[in-house]
Amino acid sequence: MEFNNSQPIYKQIIDDFKKKLIRGELKKGDKIPSQREYAEQVKVNPNTVQRAYREMESMNMVETLRGQGTFISISADRLEEIKMEMAVNLLDYFISEMESLGYSREDILKILSQENTNREGEGTL
Asked: What residues form the membrane-spanning segments (predicted)?
């Protein structure tokens, strides 16, 4: 996993877990690496991973069982909420960046519509 300086590492770790959940790479009941193991895998401070895991627990994504480890415990409803939150955040970022390039909302919609049409023709949507 590669980290960038745009946001704290613990948030990037959480986002990585969210993406894995959304893509189905992780499912309810799956055991995730211990905090120490994960810190070694991604080469970050164990305290950073501890913070990410603690946040994920408060978000009802994972559950730590004493002596057994940390497991995915997210409900289908919560997963859908997270998926929508991430989609809205991406759209907000996209719209802000397009507007910073001088595009109007109407221009953005036209570009999206045209790109959608192009991708349908290529069979990639």
From this structure: none
Clarify whether residues 69 and 13 are in a common domain: yes
Using alpha carbons, list the distances in angstroms from residue 62 to 27, 47, 116: 10, 17, 36
| Tokens, residue 79 | 């997963």
Nearest to 98 by CA among 110, 108, 111: 108
Residue-wise pLDDT for 82-108, tens only, equals 999 999 999 999 999 999 999 999 999
Range of the domain at 112: 77-122
**Whole-number average pLDDT of the chain:** 94
What is the phi-psi region of residue 83: left when phi exceeds 0, alpha when psi lies from -120 to 50, beta otherwise? alpha
Average pLDDT over residues 46-58: 97
Under 8 Å between Cβ of 47 and 35: no
Handedness of CA 10, 17, 30, 85 (dihedral sign): positive
Is 3 a domain residue?
A: no
C-alpha dist (Å) from residue 71 to 21, 33, 41:
12, 9, 18
